[in-house]
Amino acid sequence: MRSGELARLAGVTVRTLRHYHQIGLLEEPARSLNGYREYDVGHLVRVLRIKRLADLGFALQDLPLEDDADHDARLESLDAELAAQIDRLTAQRAVVAALRAGGAAPDLPPELAAHAALVSAIGLSPRLARLEREQLLLLAHLGGEEASRLIQEMYERFAEPSLMESFGAIYERFDALDQSTPAAEVERLVTDSVEALADVVAGLDLDTPLDLGTAETLFDEHGATHLNPTQVRALNEIGERLAQQLID
Question: DSSP assignment, residue 127?
Fold first, then answer.
């Protein structure tokens, strides 16, 4: 029989047959005078066996070339692998459920779902909203559990109506900064920002300092791609003054 007939009888595709040949699971049959592969019933049995084991969950690279008697050991190993897959899928479903419940996008950790809602409520410009989102993603990944904990605590505080209104105004002023902004206005914004942020971080548990090491330069680099030079300078000044105030 030709490859098309074999594939039809076995319930696979001709491309699948070629793949079995390539990885050594199915031996190459003899070819006819016109160059076509000529399969026999033995090849069909082999393909049916491969398909059955693959459908059961065995990886193709783990399939024995010939039948063996060690069925129980193979099934025990497969059962353990399938159980691990079920655990991973169950955990994934839990994450998906948490994201849906929090109304968060899938690229954010579910425990930070409140961030997306807060950004929307504050009314950030699309540019700043994207910056906040990407910076949060970087911080959560590079800072690990400690960073995620601090972020959660901060956004719980930000969620207070009075603070949301205050920071909404600050973000609006920050978004308007450019090279034409008077130095006095930049200074007022920096001062107001430090005062507002100091109230938020004052009660945070900072017993374990958040150390990002060399990764801090990545935040600077990322911010510079979204902000103009005036905004970058203002943001750096806010960070330095806030850090000094916390030390004092």
Answer: H
Co-location of 23 and 126 in the same domain: no
Domain span at residue 48 reads 3-64
CB burial readout 9-48, b (16+ within 10 A) else e: ebebeeebbeebeeeebbeebeeeeeeebebeeebeebbe
CA atoms of 25 and 73, how far apart (whole Å): 21
Residues 154 and 227 in one domain: yes
> Across the strands, what pairs with 37?
31
Domain count along the chain: 3
**Backbone CA torsion sign across 229, 231, 236, 237:** positive
Q: What is each CA distance from 17 to 4, 34, 42, 48, 135, in whole angstroms?
A: 9, 20, 14, 11, 48
Question: What confidence tens digit (pLDDT) does each residue in 34-90 have?
Answer: 888 899 999 999 999 999 989 988 888 877 666 666 778 888 888 999 999 999 999
Which candidate, 187, 167, 191, 196, places its Cα nearest to that of 230?
Answer: 187
Closest by alpha carbon to 137, among 208, 204, 219? 219
* pLDDT tens-digit map of 236-246: 899 888 878 76
* Amino acid at site 137: L
Residue pair 131/191 in contact (Cβ under 8 Å)? The answer is no
